[in-house]
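Service request form, structural biology core

Requester: graduate student, group of Dr. S.
Request type: structure prediction, single chain
Budget code: on file
Notes: please return the result as C-alpha cells.

Sequence provided:
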Amino acid sequence: MKYLLYTTFLAVAATQLLADDVPSPSSFLRSFSLDERTPYQIPVALHRGLTTLIFPEAPQNFAAARIAFVEAGQTAPDYTNDDRIDFVMLTHRGSTSCSIRALKPEAQDTLSVFLNGKVYQLFLHADSDQPLLTVDFNYRPTTGVASSSTVSPNGLIDCLTRAKAYPILAKYYPDQLDGIIHVAPNRVVAYPDFRVQLSDVFRFEEADTLVFHVLLQNQSDQEIRYQRSELSVRVEPQTPDLDQPPPLYRASVVDASGLMPPKSVTSAWFAITGTRTGGRNELDPARNIFTVLIPRTNFPPSNAVASNAKKLPVHDPKDGPHR
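Core staff response, request fulfilled:
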C-alpha cells in the first residue's frame, strides 16, 4: 500500500510541472517492474504528444512488425498513408529512453525489447483520450536474507522507493521525509576496469536502514557482470578499532541490473538493514565512511590490480546532516 501511495505522490508531483490540460496522473505516468513473463499493455499517444519509454539501461535491440524506427537526428519519412506502419519510434543510440507515437486510431502492434539478456513484450495500441505519456520500467527489486526481523520486505521496498523519489518528495511533500537523513558523499572506489561512485546515502531511522545510490562506470571495452544480490558495503566506524577489520553489511534489498555495458555509466540502488545479529546498526551517513563492494562474475586479466579508494570531498559532520 505504501509503495502505491508514494508512486502516486511521484505522479501527482510531475503533473504540477505540466499544463492544466494534461491527462490525470494515473493515465499520463506509469511505472512497471520488469518481468519477462508479464505482457505490458501500453496505450500510445495518437493525436498529440508522444509516449516516452524509459528503461533501467539502454536496450540492446527492438523488434516489431508495424513500427518504423527512426534514429534521433534523422529525418522521418511521412508514413501517414503507409498501411504497413502503425507507429513511429524515435530512438537514441545508447540511450535508456525512446519515444513513440501512433499514426492511426486502430494502430496495434507488439514491441519486443531486448534488455540485459532477456526479452520483454509491450502490447501497444493507439489511445487519443488517455495515453501514457511516460512509462518508467525498472528491474524488480530483490530482497536478501540480511534484513532485520523488524522490517518487512514491503518496508524495505518502501525505503527504496522513497529514496529514489527523494527530489520530488523534498519539493512537494517534505512532510514525508521525517526521520530521513540524506548525504551525498561522492566517494569513489576505483577497480581495475571500472569505478564505483557513491552518489547518495539515505538513512531511514525507524527502519534502521540505509539506502545507497551508486553510479557504476565501466571504463573497459567489455561488458562487466556482477552479482546484484550480493552487493555489500564495508563501514569504517566513527572510532576505528585497529585490531578488528571494518564490519561488512550485505544488501537487504537491491534494484540493479547486474550488468555494466562497455564504456557506460549505469545506476544501482541497494539497502542495508540492522546488523548480522539482528540488532540496530545505528550507522550515520554523515560520519561513517562506506566502501561499496561489487562482486563481479567475470574478471579482468590476472595482472590487473585494483587501485586504492579515492576519497572525494564529503559532507562535514560539523555542519550537521543533510535532510
